[in-house]
Amino acid sequence: MNATQATAASGPAAAGSEPVEVSWFAALCDDDYEYLGVRDAALVSSWAHCGDIVRRADAAGFDNCLLPSGYELGIDATAFAAAAARETARMRLLLAVRLGELVVPQLARQLATLDEIAGGRLTLNAISSEMPGERLDGPARYRRTAEWTRALCELLAGRPVDVDGEFLRLSVPAPRVCRESPRRLPVYFGGLSDAARECAAAVADVYLMWPDVTARLSEVMADVRRRAAARGRSLRFGWRSHVIVRETEAEARAAARRLVSHLDDDAGAAIRGRSLDAASEGVARQRELRAGADEEGFVERHLWTGIGRARSGAGVAIVGDPDQVVAKLGELAHAGVRAFILSGYPHGAECDLVARHVLPRLAHAPLAPPPLVPRP
């Protein structure tokens, strides 16, 4: 435990038997704005801009950083990860990987190489969206993700793969880089549908959830926990949301209003529609939360749905003063959340605010990676 963690160990987010992981977000998918829906050339995804965000998050003491993957928008997450690994010192890099995009043996070699470059700091966010131009329903995509993840983890562990599956037909030895240095990369995964929960129970180490009221999250966690236990597995739970923290609640709410003050509803709808996951159950639930919010967009006092007006994925922010934000994170930690992936607009500026007002008060540390299963 470092000095910051020791100071914060009695704080509200320390609830439970272990510290929480607190991660930031690299805006690789052209998703950075001062005003939602208004493009700013200085905030467009680039190595200069997003590299600065990642360096700031590392210096601030965040435990991990999500590197999201887009297709039409932004820059490539894998190439970015290789550069970011050399620009950061301690923070892990949570690389989003679209399973189905690369052949599995090449993906295993690529990830093993990246993990070597990063000094063992690579973690994986398994993505199940359709490939560009593909038409594959949700249950099939999640079955593919489970099949590919199992094979990928076997190769990374240095073991051969011989599979004749629904989506993967493969009989290969592990790449040399994996055989000589076996590794177990933690797999983060999210999805709300029944098929997604089955996939998480089968292969995920951390099941990521988009924001919701705590009672609903607890129901989802209990369901996924039961499904995993039926397979002889256990997993941890994560929360992915935005944050708007200011010295007072009034200032935080004013910042939320300012963020959407230039948003045109048609422009927001166009932004949401460009996403490859725009029709998912998770996106539908975020839409339900917006529909049930008050006139200012709050579904409860500190959960604001306004960001979802111009974003397809996680569309809710925790809004409040430092005490209120820390208390909300503590409530979620008490409910069982062990990994928080936070972001805010603009991402560099909000990273600094969260690092100043929130991070020092949390008992936090990177989640321990799952053990490498011994060779049979």
Helix content: 40-55%
Please state how the strands of the largest beta sheet are arranged side by side. Answer: 1-2-3-4-7-8-9-13
Q: Supply the number of helical segments.
A: 13
Strand content: 15-25%
Key features?
376 residues; alpha/beta; TIM Barrel; disordered N terminus
Compact overview of the structure:
Helices cover 40% and strands 17% of the residues. The protein is of the alpha/beta class.
How would you explain this protein's 3D organization?
This protein is of the alpha/beta class. The chain has one domain (3-241, 337-361): Alpha-Beta Barrel (TIM Barrel). Helices cover 40% and strands 17% of the residues. The chain has helices at 3-8, 47-60, 77-87, 104-117, 138-156, 176-180, 194-203, 214-230, 249-259, 265-273, 281-291, 322-335, 347-357; strands at residues 21-25, 64-67, 92-98, 122-127, 161-164, 169-172, 187-190, 206-209, 236-245, 298-300, 303-304, 317-320, 337-343. The strands form 2 sheets. It has an 8-stranded parallel barrel with strand order 1-2-3-4-7-8-9-13, surrounded by 8 helices. Helix 2 (47-60) crosses helix 3 and helix 2 packs parallel to helix 13 (347-357). The longest helix is centred in the middle third of the chain and has 19 residues, at 138-156. The model is unreliable at 1-10 and 12-16 (pLDDT under 50).
